[in-house]
Backbone:
């Protein structure tokens, strides 16, 4: 297991980070509006207990919750695992209505 430092100061396994980035890139390419909503909700949420955090699922547009849970980025109750939370905070860049992904690694 190789641990890497992320831009938000967290440390994660590089394999997990790569998997989370691949999921986010796919979501961004195929479902850009749901990707944007997910990123904005993660960035507006606080870290929760036991290595996971919650986003406010009641604020997601209709159908977004089902898609995001099917893609494995969050649970139906809004729980997002710590690694995904850290990757989003480290890689997602918001510029107005545009949300892009950059390498999450701290150099």
Residues:
């Amino acid at each position: 297991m190789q641990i890497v430092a992320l831009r938000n100061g967290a440390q994660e396994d590089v394999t997990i980070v790569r998997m989370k980035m691949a999921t986010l890139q796919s979501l961004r390419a195929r479902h850009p509006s749901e990707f944007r909503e997910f990123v904005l909700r993660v960035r507006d949420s606080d870290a929760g207990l036991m290595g996971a955090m919650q986003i406010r699922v009641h604020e997601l547009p209709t159908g977004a919750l089902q898609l995001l849970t099917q893609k494995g980025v969050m649970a139906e109750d809004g729980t997002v695992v710590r690694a995904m939370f850290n990757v989003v905070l480290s890689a997602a860049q918001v510029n107005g209505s545009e949300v892009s992904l950059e390498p999450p690694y701290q150099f």
Notes: The two ends are 19 Å apart (CA to CA).
